Amino acid sequence: MAGRYAPGPRPTRTGVRGGHAPTPVHAPVAGHVPVPAQKTAPATGSPDPSRTREWTPPWPLDLGLTLGPLRRGPGDPAFHAAPDGSVWRTSRTPAGPGTLRVAARAGTVRAEAWGPGADWLLDALPALLGADDDPGAFTPRHRLLAATERRRPGLRLTRTGLVMAELIPSILEQKVTTDEAYRAWRLLLRKYGEPAPGPHGGRLYVVPEPRTWALIPSWEWHRAGVDAKRSGTVLRAVRVARRLEEAAAMTPPEARRRLELIPGIGPWTSAETVQRSNGAPDEVSVGDYHLPGIVGHALADRRQAGDEEMLALLEPYAGQRHRAARLILLSGRTPPRRAPRMTPGNIAAL
């Protein structure tokens, strides 16, 4: 759910489980040449003709609510919400890189796509916009959730069908403020990502392929503010990227089990990933810094709730606990801040 539970810098994730062996500091591997920064000038035109698709969902659709969790902060190089209400998003699909523009008018969605992955993105459009989601399975048992659901009829849970694109930014968000994670994502995508196809004026980039992630030198991770533990987790994940991508076709519990086989990927990170990649309505971000307190305050007026109490409060929504948490966040009922905020780190200055 994008992990954006309160404004301003703050600690976010405790997704790394204890008990893992420490990640070694990266050193250049013999025979490997560190990948250079992307030198190709961003495309300003569209040499590729676009592909288009129109689709009319049989329910009210709110593009911002549905696709918002895919945006990794302001200035995300892979996501742009345009002033005209359209949403642009880049993806590295099984068919290659692609750019998708989606706009909704009078109940009809018009999508335009560019690049080798265009057809894949258009085929996946209904799932991206929540066609696989079933809000009817949710029964609000608290007046706050009932009221929020009535006010937000266009909320659907997205399903991207792409695991690595959701996993890597979730790893970057572990145990740091959101501002730090957003900055790292922006810097790494702009330096090592591929300029996206399509007429976006050089604004957008496609997430790097696994080999490119694997060849980023340690000092560039450091410069982006990513410590060795998180960068090491990314490196372990990209080495088995093909196997992890298979999780998009699994049930959410199976997908999480596969992701958590990688040291450094714990319950928080796997939940944040499958919420987006698999459209998982029941996967809760256990280990989040703010979410238990927000759920406790909304449902029981308890501001100091922990994970166990949060799960107990969400138990009546078993099967739809992630949707319940999204509705709580959208309700605006959050506890007032009293504790000091976490000071952002700056390992790049060390």
Automatic annotation (TrEMBL):
<protein>
    <submittedName>
        <fullName>DNA-3-methyladenine glycosylase 2 family protein</fullName>
    </submittedName>
</protein>
<feature type="compositionally biased region" description="Low complexity">
    <location>
        <begin position="11"/>
        <end position="37"/>
    </location>
</feature>
<keyword id="KW-0234">DNA repair</keyword>
<feature type="region of interest" description="Disordered">
    <location>
        <begin position="1"/>
        <end position="60"/>
    </location>
</feature>
<keyword id="KW-0227">DNA damage</keyword>
<dbReference type="InterPro" id="IPR051912">
    <property type="entry name" value="Alkylbase_DNA_Glycosylase/TA"/>
</dbReference>
<dbReference type="InterPro" id="IPR011257">
    <property type="entry name" value="DNA_glycosylase"/>
</dbReference>
